Each structure stands twice: as structure tokens, then as C-alpha cells.
Amino acid sequence: MTALTLHDVAVSRSPLGIECEHCMRHVLLTRAIVHARAGDTRTLEEVGLHCGKCGSRNFNVVRLEKPSRRTAFMRNL
Ligand SMILES: [Zn+2]
Q1: CA 42–ligand 1 middle distance (angstroms)
Q2: Strands lying side by side in the sheet with 26-29
Q3: CA torsion, points 61, 67, 68, 73, in degrees to nearest 10?
Q4: Distance from the CA of 24 to the center of ligand 1, in angstroms?
Q5: Looking at the predicted structure, is the pLDDT value of residue 77 above 80?
Q6: Residues 6+ apart with CB under 8 A from 45
Q7: Residue 74 Cα, ligand 1 centroid: separation in angstroms?
Q8: Is the pLDDT of residue 44 over 70?
Q9: Which pLDDT belongs to residue 58?
Q10: Nearest alpha-carbon partner for 54 in 16, 26, 28
Q11: pLDDT given at position 5
Q12: Which of 59, 75, 77 is nearest to 67 (CA)?
């Protein structure tokens, strides 16, 4: 589980990847998906983020600083 907050998502300079621990689905996390705003200290768990495929709320957050990492992450579905 992660304690990443909406604030973290809003101010992050690099895209964040979400990896479902249950079905291993990879999703790119964007501010729009979670309506992230700076100063919002709720965690992703608290706002009910869950896997769109299996519904699991257990996931890992991966920081994707480089475009090459982002591509590799999304290719490894
Ligand atoms: Zn899943």
C-alpha cells in the first residue's frame, strides 16, 4: 500500500504509474483521473482509487521519470 496523496500527484513533475498487485494491470495515473489538487492531503486509498479491471485497492506506485521508462511500463501490461 502507498501513502501517496493527491497533493503528491498534483505537484509531481513526472508521470506516475499504478501497478495492481492483484492482476498486475498497469495504468498511467494522471491528475485528471483522481482530480488531484495541490494541498489535498487525502491519499489515493482514501479517495477510492481502485483497479478498473479487478477492483483491487492494492497497488504499487511507480515514478516514471524518463519517457523510456514510461513506455516500458505501459508495454508490460
Ligand atoms: Zn487489478
Answers
A1: 22
A2: 26-29, 16-20, 59-63
A3: 30
A4: 6
A5: no
A6: 1, 2, 57
A7: 15
A8: yes
A9: 92
A10: 26
A11: 94
A12: 75
